[in-house]
Amino acid sequence: MLRSHYSKEIGEKDYGKKISIAGWIEDIRNLGGIAFVILRDRYGRMQITAIKKQNPELFKELVSLSRESVIAAYGTCQENEKVMNGWELLIEKMEVLAKADTPLPMGVIDKVNVDFDTRLDNRIIDLRRDEVKAIFMIRHSFIGFASEFLRKKGFVEVHTPKISAASSEGGTEVFRIDYFGRPAYLVQSPQLYKQMLMASGLDRVYEIAWYFRAEEHDTSRHLNESTAIDIEMAFIESEEEVMKVAEEMTDYAIQKIVDENSKELDILQVEVDLPSLPYPRITYDEVVEILQKEIDFKWGDDLGTDEENLLAKHVDYELYFITKFPLEIKPFYAMFDGKYARAFDLEFKGMEIASGAQRIHDYDLLIKRMDELGMNKENFEDYLKAFRYGMPPHGGFGYGIERFLMRLLNLTNIRECILFPRDRKRLRP
Ligand code: ATP
Ligand code: MG
């Protein structure tokens, strides 16, 4: 066995015992007769101590290793108050598992600022840094806790196709691909499929979904490939029930992250203020009133980054809903009352992190809406079919995972929140 213990598992109970540890060499200090090596594993750092006269060959091999080489080390775990963790490994045997080339394309512990592109070009090394790893541990937690919440509420996890014959919802740009000589598209969201599933009897579904959007934006909050938590639920009376799931899921996940990721939050220097439920609801009309006091804004305009930021300055909450949007700025499938869509956005520190709505479930009404918008119904044949044989009232939301993390962790660029970002310029690694 290469490793008997991870760093975090070693304590007083192991003092005086033989153990083996494994990881990356972060630093080597060779004082001539004695050398100290800092070894890093996924949970922390450990000191290995080598004494030359005890085993000159082992000593020589160890001190000649390059930083970030991977080793497994075996020896006695010895208590030592002066050393971090309160113990050191007196090395007796070593297996060099992989040598790292020199020079490293970027440092792991050096405090020097590396530019973001260099970091992304060397993402695997970047991920060895505590503050980067912490983001992905919290991402892991968020998805787990949100799933846990949804499952408790009776949502079934599903996986819908990402390659489709129709160019999904319209609106945003889609990536066209060659599917055995036929045109096909990467789906921009699971929207149409999750709605279709509402007619299947699985009347509460969720998906950890990929969104592919060929929008040519170059902003700090858009990716061309992003992930989301999508839900759809049937037998609802209004979008309020969907909003309740969105806020309770958010509350549950944040609470659990605060409880279980304190180490990562500390590394990222994030203090989380847990907002109380329910989150405030601000209608679009109220938003217009607030904005019109300061800028030129017409009823019916969509809210962009500037408007959202301005609004956030006037609201005393970090998390709030904007409700009752003008129908014309929401997609064709949104249910409506007169000129208002029964749609909402969830805002977190002045940025949209989720959008949802009650949807139209009545086939004739859906056809009427599509005709009004001049849509080509042939492209939606399979979708529409699901509405003809018993479709209950339903609604749902799409909730951006990277957007949520960006706001929770106060990160300025959404690319920090996904392992290998895809944007207009970046297709590698
Ligand atoms: P925006 O107006 O901010 O570009 P949107 O309204 O087009 O977003 P929706 O279609 O409502 O996005 O998607 C639901 C959620 O998915 C959004 O609230 C957001 O959190 C996330 N999302 C959508 N598009 C992207 C993207 N390009 N990059 C990252 N996250 C996205
Ligand atoms: Mg939206």
Written description of the protein model:
- By secondary structure, the chain is α+β, with helices and mostly antiparallel strands.
- The chain has two domains: 7-98, Nucleic acid-binding proteins (OB fold (Dihydrolipoamide Acetyltransferase, E2P)), CATH 2.40.50.140; 124-417, Bira Bifunctional Protein, Domain 2 (BirA Bifunctional Protein, domain 2), CATH 3.30.930.
- Helices cover 28% and strands 27% of the residues.
- It is built from twelve helices and 18 strands.
- The chain is elongated, with a radius of gyration of 27 Å.
- The two termini are 32 Å apart.
- The model has no long low-confidence stretch (mean pLDDT 96).
- It binds adenosine-5'-triphosphate and magnesium ion (MG).
- Residues 211, 213, 222-223, 226, 228, 352-355, 398, 400, 402-403, 414 line the site of adenosine-5'-triphosphate.
